[in-house]
Amino acid sequence: MPLREMLECCEMGILMAKRLQVHRWKVLTAATVLLFVMIVLSSLVGAANLTTEQIWALRIPRILLAILVGASLASSGTCLQGMFRNPLADPFILGIAAGGALGAAAALLFGLPSFAIPFVAFLGALGTAWIVYRLGRVNGVVRMDTLLLAGVAVNAFLSSMLTLLLYLNAHRLLVSAVYFWLMGGFQMATWREVWVILPYAAIGLALPIYHARALNALLFGEEWAHYSGVEVETVKRWLLLAATLSCGAAVSVAGIIGFVGLISPHLVRLLLGPHHRTLVLGAALFGALLLLCCDTIARVIVKPAELPVGIFTAFLGVPFFLMLLRQTRKVFG
Q1: Distance of alpha carbon 98 from alpha carbon 262, whole angstroms
Q2: What percent of the chain clears pLDDT 90, i.e. is strictly above it?
């Protein structure tokens, strides 16, 4: 190829990269503006007319908690999908959310202090993620079908353990509260829960952004990532820590809310592409926006009662998962 044509191709590539970068930041800016609009709208609608003081004490903590939980679940899902190179990886589907729920419910039923509940949930989620990862690894390779089957099996086992724990507990009022909490929702949201989850959400978002280059390299396989200078095992441990930390903290304050970590990363990937530095940030924004919208609708759709937001996200997520599963089967046979 002549030198002139090579220079023209390079200039075109640079221009396309700049346009794509501008497009990415336009999408992120629009999502941020839409999130602020949704915050205002959500603070004004509800089953009852509240004063300014009541809105600040009741609705604003709930709104902020929905944003933090949505961002945490979305960043966790993005991290798992990149690390496992599996488009169906999600903390809910792989059973990681069930592990966090079991830890949080055990902490609640045994009367541990509130600041210890996210840490116990994190331990449950981390142990579950390690078990699913080991079960899904065949001959040194994490197979998509084996990983999903392992997640479904571990999820069923942990759910039965949780049911047994609730059945054997004698405090019936506490058991009823835990059952209601496990359906997923923000009915009991206070400023305390917001401050409890905030550091966990920040760490769970910062770690995958910091390791964005490694996540990009892992998309081409662990061997390619190793030869490109990535310390694969060390990075995977940090990413697994970030995903389970985000998921465990979210479950500890909001119960089991599924499919946010599956829907948000795929929507953002269609808009922004696969680069994880913007993908993780965009998924967190869209996850926060998605869960805030779902919670707002759940508050007003059956007034004066409230629909648990976990049920609402399941209605949205199951068709999305089945559609994604069908597309994945077409690609991988």
Answers
A1: 16
A2: 18
